[in-house]
UniProtKB/TrEMBL annotation:
PANTHER family, alphabetized: ABC TRANSPORTER, ATP-BINDING PROTEIN, SKFA PEPTIDE EXPORT ATP-BINDING PROTEIN SKFE
Residue segments, region Disordered: 287-308
All copies of domain ABC transporter, residue ranges: 5-230
Organism from which the protein derives: Nesterenkonia halobia
One Pfam family here: ABC_tran
SUPFAM superfamilies (UniProt xref): P-loop containing nucleoside triphosphate hydrolases (SSF52540)
UniProt name for this protein: ABC transporter ATP-binding protein
Keywords per UniProt: ATP-binding, Nucleotide-binding
Length: 308
């Protein structure tokens, strides 16, 4: 393992909000990571710490083994693409690309121009006057053509239509295959990016709740589809993540994998076994807190009823 980013016990407080709560996580060299979590989970805050745009309240961040803040050895090797990127007044896409060419030593101008044509970024329009999707495309192009050793894309798709998003995913994968680098992609469109990412870091309320290679997630849950009574037999007593019944057919997703005996039985019962989607797993893992609160509320209510 070769971590290019090491985050150790990082906490970030904003007055009464704890955006990150003792987060420790590593991002490995030349791996595409998905940084996932609900709104307000702390994803942008974590990326801002690593890219030296913010300071942690406590804890330690190292990139390439060094502290990134005001570090000229580190900063040109990091690119952070975010929605609210500010560009200088009157700048056109070509000006933004020229600035990026100065900032990033591995910048590929030809690639940037090819991407600008692919995304149909208007040449003459000022970035300020561009549509939201066109502005996002400028950011995405800078992220790709910078070829920075560490590149963060923080929800880069805002305003991009489905065709442009697909273009981004295709170009990202193709360019990554030729120029491997560390990529961290934050997105709410989990199913859309699931095939791109090799490792998932999931934040919930400022804490890491999952930090795992995508391959391993397959064993975390399974979906059984078939006759309702047969599905019921194999899912009895297990934690159900999702259940749908359609007439005599059921589709049930349960936590945990099936052992060899259970798989054989599923075959005998003519059940289909499907891997769980990343989206389903993320929803399950990040709604736990609410489930817990609801449970606590219920318990308090019961207690009041009993003592009344
Ligand atoms: N500058 C700030 N001042 C005060 N609170 C902040 C600041 N930046 C972030 N926060 C708070 O920290 C928490 C985490 O915010 P953050 O932007 O990191 O979440 P996120 O996971 O990126 O969310 P989203 O998916 O909605 O973009 C939120 O509760 C947010 O309100």
């Amino acid at each position: 393992m070769n971590a290019v980013i090491e985050v150790d016990g990082v906490t970030r407080r904003y007055r009464s909000t704890t955006a990150l709560d003792a987060v420790s996580v590593r991002f490995e060299k030349d791996v595409i990571h998905g940084l996932l979590g609900r709104n307000g989970a702390g994803k942008t805050t974590l990326m801002s710490m690593i890219t030296a745009q913010e300071w942690p309240s406590s804890g330690d961040v190292r990139v390439f083994g060094q502290h990134p803040h005001e570090n000229e050895q580190v900063l040109p090797r990091i690119c952070f693409v975010r929605e609210e990127q500010q560009y200088i007044d009157d700048a056109r896409a070509s000006h933004a690309f020229a600035a990026a060419a100065m900032a990033f030593p591995r910048w590929d101008q030809e690639f940037a121009e090819q991407l600008a044509a692919d995304f149909k970024v208007p040449e003459k329009t000022r970035i300020k006057k561009m549509s939201r999707g066109q502005r996002s495309a400028v950011g995405v192009i800078i992220g790709l053509a910078s070829r920075a050793e560490v590149t963060f894309f923080d929800e880069p798709y805002m305003g991009l239509d489905a065709v442009a998003r697909q273009l981004f995913y295709d170009r990202l994968l193709a360019d990554y295959a030729e120029h491997p680098r560390t990529i961290v992609l934050s997105s709410h469109l989990i199913d859309e990016i699931a095939h791109l990412i090799e490792h998932v870091v999931l934040l919930d309320e400022g804490r890491v709740v999952l930090d795992e290679p995508v391959e391993q997630l397959r064993d975390r849950a399974v979906t059984l589809v078939g006759r309702a009574d047969a599905v019921g037999e194999l899912t009895a007593g297990r934690t159900v993540l999702q259940h749908e019944a359609m007439g005599r057919t059921a589709r049930t997703t349960v936590l945990g994998g099936l052992d060899d005996g259970e798989r054989r039985r599923a075959g005998e019962l003519d059940l289909d076994l499907l891997p769980v989607s990343l989206q389903q797993l993320v929803v399950h893992l990040t709604s736990k807190t609410e489930q817990h609160e609801q449970h606590e509320q219920h318990e308090r209510h019961e207690q009041r009823e009993r003592s009344a």
